[in-house]
Write a sequence for this structure.
């Protein structure tokens, strides 16, 4: 039961983080192109099926394992 709570909390935090990032990009007048080194987001799974969310904004990099 504790693992389920942790999983649900992690999933909810990923959703909230994604919504906040989308809202920021929507209301931001900055370029969202990775080549300009301003904004980059990637979501992928590794060979074990674990989900990774990586967000880079300038020099700030946030990586979350879901």
């Amino acid at each position: 039961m504790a693992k389920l709570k942790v999983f649900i909390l992690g999933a909810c935090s990923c959703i909230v983080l994604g919504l906040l990032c989308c809202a920021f990009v929507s209301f931001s007048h900055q370029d969202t192109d990775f080549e300009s080194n301003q904004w980059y987001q990637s979501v992928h799974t590794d060979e074990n099926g674990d989900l990774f969310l990586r967000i880079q904004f300038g020099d700030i990099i946030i990586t979350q394992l879901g």
